Each structure stands twice: as structure tokens, then as C-alpha cells.
Amino acid sequence: MTARLVRPSWTEAREAAHAAGLAARRPAEVVPLRAAAARTLGADVRSLTRVPGFDASAMDGWAVAGDGPWTLGDPVVAGPVVPSAPLRAGQARPITTGAVVPVGADRVLRSESGRLEAGRLVDGGDPGRRHPRHVRLAGEEAEPGDLLFAAGTTLTPPRLAVAAVCGLDEVTVVRQPRAALAVLGDEVTGSGIPAAGTVRDVFSPSVPDILRSLGAVCDSAARAPDDLDETVEALGRSDVDLLITTGGTAHSSTDHVRAALDRLGAELVVEGVAMRPGQPLLLARRPGILHLCLPGNPMAALTCLVAIGVPLVDGLLGRPQTRPGSVSLAVDVEHPRPGVLLQAYRLDDEGLARPVARQSSAMLRGLAEADGLLVVPQGGARRGDPVRSLALPW
């Protein structure tokens, strides 16, 4: 194994993970809009047309020209028929929302503001506003060639709606990275109540869905015992872009991940991170595949997946790195040790962050109830201090 040993800070590890993901990003593909939800753009999206494509009525009412009262003409309704005759001063036509405003119209008088007197339309006033136009001007939302969304943007339903209204039928997206999970350890059991000396596999039911929520495809989860040859076999897959393992990253006689990566010729990108929990994390690569090797303790593994796995998948999808947020503390948080402390928190009624109970490297109940993760700097922080925070991808 060609070791480029990096013992980074928490921030440096995130940057290294994002860069490694970008370097391994998959090629793009073109998909129809209906199949593009939650996908990541592989190319900029620009408008193909003006939006609206014509001056359109924003209200049901009357298109009017000049000052009233007005004589009435034929109705104008939403649809493909465009009114051909221009309005002249003193004329009005009933109009529905979305219909083409006739040439010559000054504004649309909404139905609540007009009344008919002796067969003519009279302006009854628009309370609180002086003659608003109630017209959606052609091109006020987009012009042809306008940049709608840059490459690396995640396509939400409203963004797909914008693409549709701007004339697109398909978009270019990054192919979703293929991921797999391998849970390592003799002590891990897959079902039922664990016997003394064993623990339940908590990762196979949870990690694949977390990866899918980030935009990866993960349909494979396996377990392997504490044996070097079987660890090599578990890590030696070549049919995925990202292989995530849990356990085996420390230095005991039963921890074989480093030796397995060495036998496979992998290059270490990150070995250990200055954060707790999660110090033993490893990130490695070999041709065509990235290895994110998480600690075996449940909370340590899941917090590492949030802290380091999220920017890694961001990179694989060509997205900008998801940046931390910020919250203010409801209580003092002590942290005298080096590096950062990741703590699950909930927001109280005042919007302040309070660490939850039942959280340690081996516990999960606190994380299950959390609103996010605090990133507490070395030296701790005091009540009211702003600290960085990580959103949870579930």
C-alpha cells in the first residue's frame, strides 16, 4: 500500500474526502424530468424560452384600455387562441387568469374592483393600491439562455417545475455512485437478541438508506468475521464506486482493515481524524473504488458517516461540499481534549441547542432523537456561544 499518511483536522478530513469524491466522480447521463427528482445536475440548466411567453393576465377581470367607463367586447380566455384585434381607449374585454392580454390594454381590472352600470364597465377602485396592472409581463421570470441552475445543484420538485416551465424535457445528471456495505467483526449477529459477547448488526438496516438519502445507490450489505483473508475478500470488490466498512479500523489483533487495504494496494487518503467520536476512521482509494472505513461503535460510525461520508458523496456527485450550519448553545459543553467533539443535540423551545442524553460511542438512543450534531471545538464552549452544526441526512 502506498501510504500518503494524513492526520488531518476535522475540516481537513472533510476537504480531503470531498476532493477524493470529485476525483472519482462518475460520468453524466441524460434523463427525462420525471426521472430526475433528487438527482444532481451534471451540466448547467438554461431556459429555452421566455417565461411567461406573453403578457398574461394575473387575475380574473377585464383587460381595459384608457380611462373608464368602458364598453365591453368579447371575452378572452386562457388557451391557445390569441386575441387579434387591439383594444382602443375606452374599450374592455372580460379576461381570465393566464389569458393573453390584448395589445393596447393598459392593465387588468380585477373582477372584485369593477362593476357594470348601464351595460358599461366602471372602475370601483382597488383598495390600498393605485391602479395595479395585474399583468404578468413576458419574460419577467426567465429569458432564453438564462442560467436556471448550475451543475452540482440537487434537483428538488420546485426546480424540476422551473425546468419544465422553461421548456426543458430532459436534463443532464451525474450518474449515481454505486455503494456497498460490509459489517466486520466476529461479535456481530444479524437477527434476534444478541447472546453475551455479541452485538446486533445495526448498520445493515440503517446505512444503505442513509446513502440513498445522499444520492448514492446502495443495495448490498454483507458481514465478514475477524479474519484477514475474509476481510480482504470483503474489501476486494470491484463492482462498486464506494465501499463502506464498519469495524476493524483500530490496532488490535482482530482489526484487519489496514492490512487488507495494504494487500489490495490501496492508497490511504485519511488515517485518523482529530474528532471524537470517530478518531479511527480511514479513507482509502484504489483504482475505481473508494473505501470509507468507519469505526465499529454505532454512534462513532454514524457520526463519521455524517461528518466525512456526506462530503465524500457530495464529491462523487460533483456537488459543492455541504457546509456546516450554526446553532447557539443552551448549556456549557466541556471538551478539554484535542480536536473537535461531535455531540447529538436537540433544539429547545428557545431555539437553543442542548446535548441529548444517552450518547457515547456505543449508544444510539440519543442520536435517534437528535435534531443535528454539534461540532464543539477544543476547549469547549459556553452557554449562548454559536458553534458549528451538522444536519442529519435522515
Automatic annotation (TrEMBL):
Q: What EC number(s) does the entry state?
A: 2.10.1.1
Q: Which cofactor does it need?
A: Mg(2+)
Name of the protein in its database record: Molybdopterin molybdenumtransferase
State the top-level EC class: transferase
Question: Which organism does this sequence originate in?
Answer: Frondihabitans peucedani
According to its UniProt record, which reaction does this protein catalyse? adenylyl-molybdopterin + molybdate = Mo-molybdopterin + AMP + H(+)
Report whether Transferase shows up as a keyword of the record.
Answer: yes
| Pathways per UniProt | Cofactor biosynthesis; molybdopterin biosynthesis
